[in-house]
Automatic annotation (TrEMBL):
Cofactor(s), by name: Mg(2+); Mn(2+)
Catalytic site positions: 142 (proton donor/acceptor)
Reactions listed under catalytic activity: acetate + ATP = acetyl phosphate + ADP
Enzyme Commission no: 2.7.2.1
Protein name: Acetate kinase
Pathway: Metabolic intermediate biosynthesis; acetyl-CoA biosynthesis; acetyl-CoA from acetate: step 1/2
Functional description taken from the UniProt entry: Catalyzes the formation of acetyl phosphate from acetate and ATP. Can also catalyze the reverse reaction.
Top-rank EC class of the record's enzyme: transferase
Transmembrane segments: none
NCBIfam families linked to this entry: ackA
Gene3D superfamilies for this protein: 3.30.420.40
Length: 397
């Protein structure tokens, strides 16, 4: 039996069909530029990749291509569950949920909290239910893992009614990844997750840090939206909340324009003077002496180390640091510079191990006697597939 994992964005769908028992991915791929003339689906299987154009295609068109491919391969009948990544579950979802009318309504109620993501997730779920009507559909939320944060952590010091009437609080994101790498780190350390206090850093285009105590999130750097916290590819992370009005007055920008600039033109892109948001390219430019690139990388590292050190307060005792995401898994430079700043927590780098933990299986990158630091490759598809299968077992057991 196999689990189909779907991650529906506003104009794209990432998908993967996993056989959890055999530990293999049968098929994966990406539908892009949905709704546009150049819309296409890229499929990958057995080491090969190929494209299929679906001009002006919708989610339904992309799923039709996927379903046809599954049937061609005789895999269609094996699909027993579809796991959907859903960005915002608000306070309603502390756990994944088998999708029914009530669950769809609750996801819809969270649209104001994630106006770009949740509508896309909903449209994707509805199209997938129509294409794969015989199987169970499960929603796995980015926010659910962080619902265990205590109130002193998740409340903002704003008027009480903003929280009670509008849900203004910190939610946190990347929960699936933080949960997965925490579990994986415990396995690698050979210790029960229940006993461990971990600081996990998910560093991709979006980036966040979490404090994970006994497998439960007790703090994270993202908040009401995925804009808070670390410096990211194009997102600012923390800024002074007075900045919006300041820029509105100084530059005549609307609230929407300021928010767009903070989401799309800030972060590494902003600090590098517009050079780019890609860490690998910025590291190369920094090595060649580009001042903006140097500043962007150094500021990224500083804010990351500061957030990670702050998580020690949430945990009391820190047992290990965990790096993941495209940057965490591949940038030996960022990890080295971050650990150097985290000497304050008792972390010391093993430069050789750090250099080796690139594009590989990850592993320990700290020196003997140091606070352990590890690289763990995240696998959100696998985590969603496992979660969906667990929900199904819970329901059918
Ligand atoms: P997303 O959040 O979109 O899933 P990823 O987790 O793939 O993104 O992370 C993308 C980031 O990882 C980019 O900034 C990219 O430059 C960075 N990255 C990937 N490989 C390397 C590398 N070898 N060295 C430095 N950065 C890298």
């Amino acid at each position: 039996m196999a689990t189909l994992v779907l991650n529906c964005g506003s104009s794209s769908v990432k998908f993967a069909l996993l056989d959890l028992a055999a530990g293999i991915t049968h098929l994966s791929g990406l539908a892009e530029r949905l709704g546009a003339a150049e819309a296409s689906v890229t499929l990958r299987a057995g080491g090969e990749a190929w494209d299929q154009p679906i001009p002006g295609g919708s989610y339904a068109d992309a799923f039709a291509v996927l379903a046809a491919e599954l049937d061609t391969r005789g895999l269609g009948k094996d699909v027993e569950a579809v796991g959907h990544r859903v960005v915002h579950g608000g306070e309603h979802f502390q756990a994944p949920a088998l999708i029914d009318g009530e669950v769809l309504a609750a996801i819809r109620a969270c649209v104001p909290l994630a106006p770009l993501h949740n509508p896309a997730n909903l449209a994707g779920i509805e199209a997938a239910q129509a294409t794969f009507p015989q199987v169970a559909h499960v929603a796995v939320f980015d926010t659910a893992f962080h619902q265990t944060m205590p109130e002193v952590v998740y409340r903002y010091a704003v008027p009480d009614a903003w929280y009670t009437q509008h849900g203004v609080r910190r939610y946190g994101f990347h929960g699936t990844s933080h949960a997965y790498v925490a579990e994986e780190a415990a396995r690698r350390l050979g210790r029960p997750l229940a006993e461990l206090n971990l600081i996990t850093a998910h560093l991709g285009n979006g980036a966040s840090v979490a404090a994970v105590q006994g497998g439960r999130s007790v703090d994270t750097s993202m908040g009401l939206t995925p804009l808070e916290g670390l410096i990211m590819g194009t997102r600012s992370g923390d800024v002074d909340p007075g900045l919006h009005e300041f820029m509105a007055r100084q530059a005549g920008l609307s609230l929407t324009q300021v928010t767009a600039a903070l989401n799309q033109a800030s972060g590494l892109r902003g600090l590098s003077g517009g050079l780019g948001s890609d860490m690998r390219e910025l590291e190369q430019a920094a090595a060649q002496g580009h001042a903006g690139a140097r500043l962007a990388v150094a500021a990224f590292v500083y804010r990351l180390a500061k957030q990670m050190a702050g998580m020690a307060v949430a945990l009391g005792r820190v047992d290990a640091l965990v790096f993941t995401g495209g940057i965490g898994e591949n940038s030996a430079t960022v990890r080295a510079a971050t650990l150097e700043r985290l000497g304050v927590l008792g972390a010391r780098l093993d430069p050789q191990a750090n250099a080796l933990a690139v594009r590989g299986q990850g592993g320990l990158i700290s020196a003997p006697g140091s606070l352990p630091a590890l690289v763990v490759n995240t696998n959100e598809e696998l985590a969603i597939a496992r979660t969906a299968a667990q929900v199904l077992q819970g329901v059918t057991a």
